[in-house]
């Protein structure tokens, strides 16, 4: 078995993670010259430059980034296997998750996870965009792009959007549409797209990455376009649009996990209208080479069970 200088690998990982020779030396309790020597020895063995140095700036080369992906994962696995043999039961995992999914669905359920699996120590890495699938970012991910062949994926939710408003605003809608004399209940007549457009439409830019893209898709679902008379209010995030709806500012499009189990989901009314599929599906993702790790297995099973229990996916 032909291996690189093994002492240099933790040094390389520390320098790459901290982006600094001096900080790596401090963390490893060695001199900065010893760190430089280990990196030079590794670069000589590989015949590749791993870092670009420009004054006080240090960046990984393309080869360095590629090497870090493999070395970082291997060192993590060595650490975890060693902990298991030493009898350490705790499992520490970093989960990268979309902020809206975390705030509205995952965080309210974390006490249940901690109660059922106290040995699992989970830290959340918030992501506003689809995360890069890499051990440098997290150990596992909630993603909508199952693109990497090095990862395995478990479906949690296929997204659909539907209109909601506050309880008070729903009563206003019923009054203005002349429905306040009707008995409210399951047989509430469906609102037409024309009736919906008579009220402010709260739009989330991030869903389709363009202004009013969510409402365009909703109207397109019934082969219509947004009426020219419609009043649109724009927000960068679904969380903001939902808060505006809570405070009686209009009608927002939201999805199932945003109203899944939060106690304040009762503040909202789902309007009797059609829903539209966004084309996005949410997956729990983990590196296939780490599939046997106990912590990942526990988290995967728990997330799937909660998604089924909360109605996000079928069994």
Automatic annotation (TrEMBL):
The keyword DNA-binding applies. The keyword Signal does not apply. InterPro entries: LysR-type_TF_proteobact-type, LysR_HTH_N, LysR_subst-bd, WH-like_DNA-bd_sf, WH_DNA-bd_sf. Keywords: DNA-binding, Transcription, Transcription regulation. Residues 4-61 form the HTH lysR-type domain. SUPFAM superfamilies: Periplasmic binding protein-like II, Winged helix' DNA-binding domain. Belongs to the LysR transcriptional regulatory family. This is LysR substrate-binding domain-containing protein. The lineage of its organism: Bacteria, Pseudomonadati, Pseudomonadota, Gammaproteobacteria, Pseudomonadales.
